[in-house]
Design goal:
homodimer; about 500 residues; alpha/beta; nicotinate phosphoribosyltransferase; TIM Barrel; 2 domains; six-stranded antiparallel β-sheet; six-stranded parallel β-sheet; globular
Chain lengths: ~500, ~500
Amino acid sequence: MRDLASDVLLTDQYQLTMAQVYFRAGLHERPARFEHFFRSYPDYGAHQAGYAVTAGLRTFLDWLKGAHFDPFEIDPIAGHPTTTGDKMFSPDFLDWLGEHADFSALRLTAIPEGRVVHPGVPLTVVEGPLILCQLVETALLNHLNFETLIATKASRLWEAARGGNVLEFGARRAQGSGAHSVVRAALIGGASGSSLVGRSYELGFLPRGTHAHSMVQAFMALGMGELGAFSAYADVYPDDCLLLVDTIDTLESGVPNAIAVFEKLAAGGHKPLGIRLDSGDLAYLAVRSAAMLDAAGFGDTVIVLSSELDEITIRQIIEQILDESHRLGTDGDAIVRRLVYGVGSRLATSQGDPYLDGVYKLAAIEDRGEWVPAIKLSDTPAKVLTPGAKRAWRIYDERGLATADLLALADENPSPPLELHHPSQAGTKRRLGAERVSELEELGEPVQLEGRPTPHEEILAAQARRLADLERLDPGVRRLVNPHVYHVSLSPRLARLKQELIGSWSD
Amino acid sequence: MRDLASDVLLTDQYQLTMAQVYFRAGLHERPARFEHFFRSYPDYGAHQAGYAVTAGLRTFLDWLKGAHFDPFEIDPIAGHPTTTGDKMFSPDFLDWLGEHADFSALRLTAIPEGRVVHPGVPLTVVEGPLILCQLVETALLNHLNFETLIATKASRLWEAARGGNVLEFGARRAQGSGAHSVVRAALIGGASGSSLVGRSYELGFLPRGTHAHSMVQAFMALGMGELGAFSAYADVYPDDCLLLVDTIDTLESGVPNAIAVFEKLAAGGHKPLGIRLDSGDLAYLAVRSAAMLDAAGFGDTVIVLSSELDEITIRQIIEQILDESHRLGTDGDAIVRRLVYGVGSRLATSQGDPYLDGVYKLAAIEDRGEWVPAIKLSDTPAKVLTPGAKRAWRIYDERGLATADLLALADENPSPPLELHHPSQAGTKRRLGAERVSELEELGEPVQLEGRPTPHEEILAAQARRLADLERLDPGVRRLVNPHVYHVSLSPRLARLKQELIGSWSD
């Protein structure tokens, strides 16, 4: 079934008005190149990310596959009035859209999903007829900006959790159907599962979850109490028994009742899974609950933490557990190892910075068989573009760690020694001798539109790329707060072109 | 076509696991009542909202209509394994879902979309078989929390714009398909249009937009310059000519080129629409551009502002324009009247507070023909629930302004004089004599599942409700920063019930 909102008309009105101008000016089939990049890392208030994780390409490709103009889409456009009551779009233009707007004519190059990426570096490059490049802009930005934002947040949570599992629980407060993108991007960024049922199955993952307060409340109201609720749950799921213990009082009621139920399960040969804490001082309650579970012989159960978690809270909870355990003479590391983190709203909405400032800009257009670089100056200096068709390279140093990304013109093949120019401060540069460069890796890859692996396989591949990239990233860049700045530089030729074009248009 | 992710399995795994517990315990058809409310107004960092605007009910009802368990949905659930490799869900439970999970058995009461609402007040009440109430939780929260969040943000932008049009431009950085909810909620909250094409048509609104920098860049790269781009645009849209003037230099290039094109249009009998400013100091550029347009005889063109706008920035831009105009001796009010605001990312993601903390809680459950109130205590005091089946009333004072909302038990019919109890501080109360109450209005209304108006009519009705409610809201509560606190109080009986239940479970 066609969906007016989600298919090819997931686009901004100005893409259509510009398309008709290109058509009328005879520029619609002119080869053009657009580059998609973000300007700055997500900045969550007091803490800015030091790297991002790219995601969303497949979601965009799935959209692209279904994008075509049928009468279903063309009819409402055809009726769009001008201010004087004429038709905004003329029949010959609409006919062209219906007959010739074939998006398979686009060539895409992209940095594969899951890779660590940095500002100003083209994540996705679209080449083809100007009109088609323009018509995919909104959907491309919508899908890639958001999934990259969430994969980045998930990766930070994963770093904070020090190997503990992070589960995505955010659908109830996610931004509408953005919840579906959240699940996929969170998995790419390091989450090990999601609570959202249909979307998880669609992606080949098992949804995760046990019970809510409402179940305990219902049993309480009916006179069966918290223990009755826990027992009923254990009866149905004897081998998957994980109990939410804070409906009345965590340490006085929830944990003792859970232990009573666990003892019955154990007596029946079942292994209880653990408990979930959802309110109060989670660090303190985790230490105390762990001690009670240990004393009852359930030292191998997990403790799931939830309630407004983010990467900074997780880090602080771990620190506090280690401190308190040290004071109490217990094994804090053992407690931390049994923690699982259920992260909802703050992951699903990237709380603190809910959008990535990704843009999609004309880099070059063909004229008489040559690529002509495009520029935009702007009254806001940070919005001045680096012009021209570009490729991005990652430079690995003598330790094998990524030390900088290098933007060069598309026809350059840089090799060490390298001269690295600052992207906006003209004249500022540094040299990197051949002895300091162990590898130079091109980041973009041609995108295959057909014969792609399953959604599940693509996520696993992206997860592997992310882990490999993090291995080769300086620990200072991976810091959660105040990370070391990773450099993105220009080649000498690209730096020169930028200065020349700024000069020629500023006169 | 069924959509695994969006239909009935837009639910969290724990709704299914709890459903099976209810089924096994014989509680699945027990009448229950859940109430949906939010705990606090959106808080955008330095400024917290003083009211919210409810939205999303229709989106949830559309979901509900398509929610049923077919083999398509049941098959993946049936395959879900336990930790020991057994099946998590048993065939008799799955059969029940397929045969008896009929969501039309639910009775809904809701505060209609577009109304001004406050924390703790039930926005949506769901009554029916416990298992069905539970299974709709995730979708209800997903749709209503997000649209309410965005309608609230849009209403703040509308307040800041002082009657100027606010256009929603956010799809490119919206949270994935959350963009579709944004359009609808923004329209309910006060936006006068959106750039998103398919979704706008679906809702019966015309999408809005003109052209981007890329069009100017393309003409520049091909040697035709900014003037060539503007002329080409004006040729195609002589009666809808609105030009983006900041690609090179707003005052030195963009505005003069726009005026040149406008003069040709005017000579041909056309009326140019205006310009758009997208970078730099928007207030300064608006004052200067307005003067240039006035001098050229285009005083009735609009000036569209865009670039990271939010309600505080809009307010400051207006203040700055009025100040500067006063200094320059020009008519600042006339400039402000011609402004239009294109608001993107910060509206579409509710930047500053990207999720509403709405919850859906069991309020009561039937036992032997009686409603038994449900309670949850929690280790976090703010999470303690007000128990029981409740109805909400709005109290209007002698001026006809809303002065407080009153929560009472569902079987109460409050009438003045009123005793208003603080929702969490036991014993704190105030009296409102009959002479100070001009009207007592029940807020919830039964929801019709069938025979509803078109999406367009529903949005218009919601817009009208919002305007009527704002007319009757204290101006202090409408302030953008540091609003006066609107009170939500409990009836004496409800306050007493809450204390009794807390006492009985805390012993």
